[in-house]
Amino acid sequence: MGFNAFDNFMFSFGPIFITAISALVFGFFIFMIIKGIGQWSKNNNSPRLTIPAHVVTKRAHTSGGSGDSSASTWYYATFQVESGDRMELAVGAKEYGMLAEGDIGMLTFQGTRYLRFERK
Fold this sequence. Notes:
The chain has two domains: 1-45; 48-119, CATH 2.40.50.660. A hairpin with a 2-residue loop joins strand 4 and strand 5. By secondary structure, the protein is α+β, with helices and mostly antiparallel strands. Helices cover 41% and strands 40% of the residues. It has a five-stranded antiparallel sheet with strand order 3-2-1-4-5. This is DUF2500 domain-containing protein. Keywords: Membrane, Transmembrane, Transmembrane helix.
């Protein structure tokens, strides 16, 4: 395989490779959008429940923030209900700050969507 043969191979393979990678990235974004819409719809069709629970633990996940980019933080709380089952729900920053591990109260949620927690 001479130099010209390699150039011809790369000239014909390059556009195919770029198109394939672009299609994979585009497909991933479409998949994530459909998955998000499906979860949103499932939550909307779930009943709103208010049950006794206590806060087992809290955690925060931060990403980004290197160089000139800003950081993003997501907050989660794990609740345990009377049956012993646990569920981790995403909560807002204000709610996260107001919750303390060991809090006992009434948890209101809809599917995987946290709505509120009222301490006793």
